[in-house]
Amino acid sequence: MKLIVIVGSSRAHGVSSKVVSLIRRHLEGRASVEELWLRNYRIDYCDADNACSHIDCSLPDDVAAIVNEMVKADAILYLPVMHA
C-alpha cells in the first residue's frame, strides 16, 4: 500500500513533521509513506474561467504534478495548516 501525506504547513520542523514521523513509524513494513509538502510546489490562484472542466488547466503551476502523485497513491492523508 502506498500512502501519500500532503502537508500544508510551511514549517519544516513543526508539529506536522512530527505527525508524519509517527505515521511512518506506525506503518513501517505495512505501507510506503510519501510526504508531499505543498510549500515545495508552485500553486497559482485559479483564474476561475472553468475551462479546465473541458480541457487541461492552462495555469503553469505544479498542481498537475501533485494530482499525478495523488492518483498513484492507494490512500491520501491531508495535514492542513493549523493556525489557532
Q: If you had to describe this structure to a student in words, what would you say it looks like?
A:
With 84 residues, this protein is an alpha/beta fold. It has one domain. The chain is 27% helix and 20% strand. It has helices at residues 15-27, 63-72, and strands spanning 2-7, 32-37, 75-79. A 3-stranded parallel sheet has the order 2-1-3, sandwiched between helices. The longest helix is centred in the N-terminal third of the chain and has 13 residues, at 15-27. The chain is flat. The model has no long low-confidence stretch (mean pLDDT 92).
List keywords for this structure.
single chain; 3-stranded parallel β-sheet; 84 residues; alpha/beta; 3 strands
Write a short abstract of this structure.
With 84 residues, this protein is an alpha/beta fold. The protein has one domain (2-79). Helix content is 27%, strand content 20%.
Question: Rg to the nearest angstrom?
Answer: 15 Å
Going across the major beta sheet, what is the strand order? 2-1-3
Number of helices: 2
- Unreliable stretches (pLDDT < 50, length at least 5) are none
- Structural class label: alpha/beta
- Strand-and-helix sequence, N→C? EHEHE
Bin the strand percentage: 15-25%
User: Mean pLDDT, as a whole number?
Assistant: 92
Number of strands: 3
Biggest sheet details? 3 strands, parallel
Shape: flat
What is the domain tally?
A: 1
| Helix content percent band | 25-40%
Ends distance: 34 Å
Oligomer: single chain
